[in-house]
User: What shape does this take?
Amino acid sequence: MTVVVTGASGHVGGNLVRALLEQGRNVRVLVHKDRRAIEGLDVEHVQGDVRDLDSLESAFQNADVVYHMAVYITLQMDEWPICEAINVEGTRNVVNACLKTGVGRLIHGSSINAFSQEPRGSIVDESRPLVESEQYPPYDRSKAAAEKEVQSGIENGLNAVILNITGVIGPYDFRPSNTGKLILDYIHRKVPAVVKGGTDWVDVRDVTIGAIKAEKCATVGASYLLSGHWIPLYDFGLMVEDVTGIPAPRIVVPMWVARMGVPFITLYNRLTGNIPRFTTISLNALESHRSISHAKATRELDYRPRPLVESIIDTVSWFEKAGYINRSVNLSS
Assistant: This one.
């Protein structure tokens, strides 16, 4: 039984490949450029790109299951073309390749961002409508559009399941992710203050457990929210402090002040060539989706996210062993 993983070089994909290998599964990975997350693993490599239908058809030959985890993430408002090409058209290609090659089941990795932020203040679950308005960020719109591509495939006979994932944290974060960068910034004391707001953090290993369980027992067309724990940035910093012994920032900046600073930070990033993480989009995200329910996943998949402190401990430990933390930094752990 062959399992194919797209996006295997990403945070979720790399952990998923490891979890599948631990189960003794025969894993084939679609590789585009970055191979760090899968180096040394006993997997079959196929060079390809989700934007290239022919390469997908080649990768999916004789595959029983495909996990589609390839994604382009951005916090910019001007990147719709690339979001559309990778997230939307790429997913359409995956769906069509699955149908053409007779793949038994597709597990599609989507995002909490695919759901509308309205109505605010209410619980977010699988019944929340998808993003429609072009006022939403390109990433959000593209993930919603990608889900519609999967739903269209289901209507045409594809056996598929959709997973909506929140902010991922955990080991084997090679690139690293935005969450990983935040932890490293805390450790290297590059965060003088935090913005009032927070996010839902979920351990990447819990996501892979939920995904594999969905592959084995979910009904065709089912969707599941794989969330963890909503924690304010301030409290998250204190948890990192407890784990590392490095003082967390004590200054909390009101949201309106943070929004005033976005243009200046954007200009600085353009001048320095840095990829901005502090944008209007990221600030909006800190105010949305506070009450996220994974009750359906718990009920049907026995999905039970671990305590966030455990995820922080293991993430910091992995970063330290992998050489991402400056040697001059003394960790209490």
Observations:
- Residues 2-173+200-228+290-306 form a domain with the Rossmann fold fold (CATH 3.40.50.720).
